Each structure stands twice: as C-alpha cells, then as structure tokens.
Amino acid sequence: MTRRSHWLIGGGAAIVLLGAPGLLRSYGVYLLSYWLVFVVATMGLNLTVGYAGQVSLGHAAFLGVGAYSVAILMKAGHSFWLGLPVAAALCFVLGLGLGFPALRVQSIYLAFATLGFNVAMWLVMRNEEWLTGGTSGITDVGRPGVLGWSLTGGRAYYYFELAVAAALGALLWRLLRSPWGRAFTALRDNPIRAESLGIHVQAYTLLAFAIGAAYAGVAGALFAGLVQFVEPTPFSLGASFLMYLMVVVGGAGSVFGPALGAAVGVLLPEWLRFAQGWYLVAFGVAVVLLMRWLPGGLVSIPDRVRARRAGAAPTTRGRT
Amino acid sequence: MTAPLLEVVGLEKSYGAIRAVDGVSFSVMPGEIFGVIGPNGSGKTTMFNSVLGQIRPSAGTIALEGRDITHLSPLQLSRRGVGRTFQALQVFGQMTVRDNLIVAAQEHRGTLLRRLFAAADNGLGARADELLAQFRLRDVAHRRAGELSYGQQKLVDIAMAFMSDPVLVLLDEPCAGVHPGLVDGIRRLLQELNQARRRSFVVIEHNMEFVQQLCHRILVMVEGRVLAIGTPAEIRANRQVLDAYLGA
C-alpha cells in the first residue's frame, strides 16, 4: 500500500469512527468500545508476532494484568490515571520476563512457553482471592473523568478509548518507521543475518515482547473501565488464541491488520447472531474460509485484486 | 613491516572424530584481497564460520588488528568492523533495497535509545544512495528486495556488507549462481571498493578465473588443511595444487 492510500484509509476510518456512535444504540456503542480494546491489544501483539516474528500465546494474561492493575488500584482508592500507567509499566516488565524464553526457544516451543505463562497468570487471577477477588472478581470499577468531563457515559467512554487507540496507533506508526521498526523486521525475516549486521537480537526480541505487553496492559485498563467488572474468564487461554487469530486474519505485519482482525473477532460473531445456536459454527467456518483464500489476511485483498488484474500470483505481506 | 589485519593461527574445528578444519594458519594484510579455494568439503566454509563467530573453534586463535577475537559472537565482530556475506542469499525480502542497506549499518550509529528517536534512515540515506549508485541499484532502490532477480539480490547482499564501512569483509561465494555476465561486474566493484577505501577482503569462491583476477594471494584448502598459500601465479604453478585441485 502506498503512503497516499494509507492516509485515505486512515481519514475514511476516522470519519466513520467519529460518526458511528451517533447512528448506533447503546449496545452498538458498547460493541465498538469492546472492539477498540482489542484493537489496542492486537496492535501490541502485531508488533510481537507480525513485525518481530515471535510466537506469543500469552497475550490475554497481559490484558488481565492491565485490567486487574486498574481494578485493584481503584478499589484501594487510587485514580484510574494512576492505574493506566501502572498497568502499562507492569506489563512492560512482565513482557521482558516473558521474552526470555524467546532467546532460547522458537516456534512451537516458544508457543508452549507463552501458553504456560498465560495459564499461570490465569490461575493467579482465579486463586489469589485476597488480591483479585477470585472467581467473584472485582466489581464497581469506576470510569475516569478528564478535565472535568465525565467519561461515565457509553459514548463519552467510546471517544476516550478512540483517542487512546489513535494515540497508541500513532506511537506504533512512529516506532515502526524508526530504526527500531526496521530492526524488528530484520529480526523476523532472518535473525542470523540480522545479528551479523550488528542487530542485537536479544535486546530487540525482549523489547518486542515488552512493548507488545504494555499495549495489552493499556487495553486491559480500558477493558476494566468499559466492563466495570473484572474476573478471570476473559483472560483465559481462549482469549490469547482469539487475539492471535485476530492478528493473522487481519494481516500480521501490517498497520491496519489488527483493526480489521479485531473486527472479525469481536463484531463478526455479533453479525452472525441471526444463525442463532449456529453462530459460533458460522464464525469458525468464516475464519477457515478467510484463511484458505486470504493467507495474508484481510489487508492483502487490494494486493490480490491488483495481482489478479495483472494476471500474476499475489504476494503475501508479513509473516506469522 | 606492516602488522597483519587478520591473523589466524592453528585453527581447528572437530565434529567428533572428524576434523573439518585442521590447524589452519594464515594472515591477511591491510588492503589485501585474500582468496580461499578448495574442493567441496575441504573445510572452507567451516573455517569461515569459525573466524566469524558463527561456530566455536575447537582450538587456535584469531586476531583482528592485533586483538584476540577468537570467541567473539557475530554481533561483537560486526561492531568491531567485520562484515560478511553468506553462501546463500540473505537479503531481507520484505524490505526495500534502500532499507536493506540502511538496516545493514543502522546499529553502528548511536545508542539503542537514540535510535528510537532517530530519523527513519538514521542519517545513513546519503551513504545508502552512494552504494546504490556504485552497485547500479538506484533504479530499484524503492522496490522490495525479494522482487528482484537473483543477480540483483546478490548485489544488494554484497552492498549490505559494505554499508557500515567495515575494516574487513568476508565474502562467501559472491559469484555462486550469478549469471556469467555479472561476474565481471562483481569483480570490478570489489576492486573499486578495495582501491578507493583500502578495504581488505577474504573471498571464498569456486570460480577460478574470478579468484585469480581479483585476489592478491590465495590459500588452497584440502581436507581441512592448508595445501598452499601464494600469489595467483604461484598457485597456478604449484604442482601439489595442480594435482589435488586444479589438475583437470
């Protein structure tokens, strides 16, 4: 995609996202807010998976740590505005820790290491009742206000999330266009060559995990404010798989991929509700078909169309 | 007398009972193009990878500019000014050709944190453009490297090794798989780089004509050992080399 088409798509998306709440009922606004949580979370996972080429099946754990950080701090009487940076910082540090197995193991072995991390963190959330409230969770998590403007309403909170997602998207955009972004891509495409060029493979691998985890921490904080009730279920292994699926279906290693993938993961099941008891089956089939026909994810559609017009085989962007 | 740039003494690499590299010693002088030839399986690439920290030698020492580098990692060697190419193509296919060159040197400038806030090209754009022109890659600078022909990718691969202005470059079969028409072009480019910047190279290559025309001295390896070291004329006249390698 050219820079011009990036700006056109970004501008069009901004108009739709700013205008959408005015056309939707409260459940629709809630769903869009829920989608934004996963847009932020999968932006981070896309950095780890799509750009740095690492496998991570522990992303839901960071989402949970972010949510619990805000919920616990707010329950103790602190502000959301303290909880938000604490969530990001705590997840950054945990992400550094999770990155260490990636220095030793790759592919399926790394997948299992991160999967184990998710299970361990989920058990902490469920069993450490003194801290997390166990299966009963933490209720009445408040929503913040900003400059005297309350964010308690659904639409106000949606716009707050949209602002955070836009700011984090811009930050990631800048990061990927810095030498760091190029180093992440080099690391993904060919770590042996990258090291021979002086790229510190260990440092960049750890950073990819840590920054990705910090994004999930912020997403978790937004989630806590949105749902206003934090319990372990949304942070189980299934959520990690779903987020990985979102990145791959959207298009790993592309800027807009996570937003599209999160739409498939969050909004598509809702649109398939007409299938009643079969809606999850329909969702599964839709994902299988998408992966069959679009292995490069939804963002590869323009490339495929162009390739078909030119009569050539399409190129697949990014890697998983 | 000038001190050697690279000095390898008694290098050995064993895999169980098999000695892939057996007591290899040689030195490379500043500004010298040093060739390494030998039949397949003679231990050239194992020796190369031992020097470059890709594999750990079983014995021997390696010194660069008088300092021991025997057990340094490829990362540390890169930061000491040692560039390399691999036998197989190793460009970053998803990046543009220009970005391939920039990524090849960006880690040699500034600290990790400074690079986060640096301009996208980290101040290397002019150097990249200079090499793109020298390697006749300017027209494809903004195309993805993976979309280029094999020969063009080979040129990108070689140009990457020179981006950080290394003191020593080790080239593993730079002409392998390249169209014969391009071989002369690669030789001229390497000679230009050698003369303009007085850079030293170690070149492994099977193309004898290329090696004889390019290199100042040549080392012949057979069965992990050094059979002979000398100028191209001396190697051509060496009876042992003729019998063991060039005989046909």
Descriptive account of the structure:
The complex is a heterodimer of chains A (320) and B (248). The relative contact order of chain A is 0.17. In chain A, strands 1-2 form a two-stranded antiparallel ribbon. In chain A, α3 packs antiparallel against α4. Chain A is mainly alpha-helical and 320 residues long. Chain A has a domain of 212 residues. Chain A is globular. Chain A contains 14 helices and two strands, in the order ααααααββαααααααα. With 248 residues, chain B is α/β, with parallel strands linked by helices. Chain B folds into two domains: 163 residues, Rossmann fold; 75 residues, no CATH class. In chain B, 36% of the residues lie in helices and 24% in strands. Chain B has ten helices and ten strands. In chain B, the strands form two sheets. Chain B has a six-stranded mixed sheet with strand order 6-7-8-3-9-10, sandwiched between helices. Chain B has a four-stranded antiparallel sheet with strand order 2-1-4-5, covered by helices on one side. Chain B is globular, with a radius of gyration of 18 Å. Chain B starts with 5 loop residues before the first strand and ends with a helix. In chain B, 45% of the residues are buried. The mean pLDDT of chain B is 93. The chains are: A mainly alpha (320), B alpha/beta (248). The interface between A and B is medium-sized, with 27 and 32 residues.
